[in-house]
Amino acid sequence: MAGRLTWWAFVPMTLCICGWISWGRMFFGVGGWGVILYPLLAVPAVLILTVPVVITVLCSPNRPWRFTGPEATAVASAGAAGVVVGLAVPDAGDAPNSTQSILTHLTQMTVGTSGTLAWWSAVAAAGLMLVAFILTVVRVAGERRVAAAHRPPFAPCPQQNPMYPPPGTPWPPGHQERR
Questions:
Q1: What's the whole-number average pLDDT of the chain?
Q2: Exposed site from 16, 22, 102, 165, fewest CB < 10 Å?
Q3: Which 3-state string (H, E, C) describes the chain?
Q4: Is the preceding omega at residue 172 within 30 degrees of 0, hence cis?
């Protein structure tokens, strides 16, 4: 059940994390040029990591679509790492106090420590999505192999198909060849 719930929450969670990384700082009074720059950086990076996983799951011959336990754990952990990225990524700006992150605004953490935490959280999220992709590819390949083994043989060639007339039969029916 957790795999299906994680699967159905995957795309909305991904979109929320994109918004959180891009604009989450504004809700805490921290804003700078990152509000414009991070959507151009974060959204393509998150999509590059998530679209292959979605396509692989959609290629599964089994319905309903779902994640297995390890896949769901990897995806949920990557989502948690994405939330940490949104909390820790420092903004960039030319105004006073515009280079803060949510963590530097709410705690006594330095901007450098916050940036390091954001960087390592992004690396962890990317690694976890790569693990989820590999696990999903292995599972779906196995499911497709099993489905192919249970698939009926191919349809006979057209000469054996009763819908087509046997070779040498005049076509259309009733039409005589003229000599």
A1: 85
A2: 165
A3: CHHHHHHHHHHHHHHHHHHHHHHHHHHHCCCCCHHHHHHHHHHHHHHHHHHHHHHHHHCCCCCCCCCCHHHHHHHHHHHHHHHHHHHHCCCCCCCCCCCCCHHHHHCCCCHHHHHHHHHHHHHHHHHHHHHHHHHHHHHHHHHHHHHHHCCCCCCCCCCCCCCCCCCCCCCCCCCCCCC
A4: yes
First to last CA, the chain: 73
Burial class (CB in 10 A: 0-12, 13-18, 19+), 142: exposed
pLDDT band at 153 (very low <50, low <70, confident <90, very high): confident
pTM above 0.70, yes or no: yes
User: Could you tell me which residue, 149 or 116, shows the higher pLDDT?
Assistant: 116
The answer to whether the CB of 65 falls within 8 A of the CB of 53 is: no
- Over residues 67-80, the mean pLDDT reads 94
Higher pLDDT, 94 or 102: 102
Q: Count of CB atoms within 10 A of residue 125's CB? A: 24
Instruction: Report the C-alpha gap between 92 and 19 in whole angstroms.
Output: 17
* Residue 5 clears pLDDT 60, i.e. is over it: yes
Q: Whole-angstrom Cα distance, residue 152 to residue 154?
A: 7
